[in-house]
Specification:
Elements: E1 2-7, H1 19-22, H2 27-37, E2 42-47, H3 51-61, E3 67-71, H4 80-88, E4 93-97, E5 119-122, H5 127-139
Parallel strand pairs: 1-2, 1-3, 3-4, 4-5
Helix pairs in contact: 3-4
The structure holds 1,3,4-trihydroxy-5-OXO-cyclohexanecarboxylic acid.
1,3,4-trihydroxy-5-OXO-cyclohexanecarboxylic acid binds near residues 10, 76 and 97.
Length: about 140
């Protein structure tokens, strides 16, 4: 089972960035634990602040991996290019948001990605990534 986690802009600052919203744990510390929890999964992690790099990674993994866990961060609400990449590939995509985007500003309520996602997790903190892994294992 090959799963790639793709994180978008500013998520490299997890643990430092607005901890009241995103928590105080870095993604690398969380990712270590995630790998220990699911030894049967071959995880890849990718983060970029650049829209095109995210499109490239979705294309590169989308025909080869068993699942993509995508937190496109702010690009969720703006990027037709990332939405088109998600629509183009074969792998199921689980859209994850650490915060409950529906309890925040109106511009965060719309996602270009959700239409082509297998499902969406929002508001469960980093645990949402675990829930996404559980779902991908369940459907495999
Ligand atoms: C986010 C929510 C987005 O609205 C925001 O731009 C982010 C992170 C989340 O994980 O809660 O950068 O995707």
């Amino acid at each position: 089972m090959k799963i790639v986690i793709i994180n978008g802009p500013n998520l490299n600052l997890l643990g430092v960035r607005e901890p009241g919203i995103y928590g105080s744990e870095s993604f690398s510390s969380f990712f270590d634990k995630l790998q220990q929890t699911y030894p049967q999964v071959d995880f890849t992690f990718f983060q970029s602040n650049h829209e095109g790099a995210l499109v490239d990674k979705i294309q590169e993994t989308g025909f080869e991996y068993d699942g993509i866990i995508l937190n496109a961060a702010a690009y969720t609400h703006t990027s037709v290019a990332i939405a088109d990449a998600v629509a183009a590939i074969k792998a199921p995509v689980v859209e994850v948001h650490i915060s409950n985007v529906y309890a925040r500003e109106d511009f965060r309520h719309h996602s270009y990605i959700s239409k082509n996602a297998a499902g969406v997790m929002a508001g469960f903190g980093l645990h949402g990534y675990r829930m996404a892994v559980d779902y991908l294992l369940y459907r495999s």
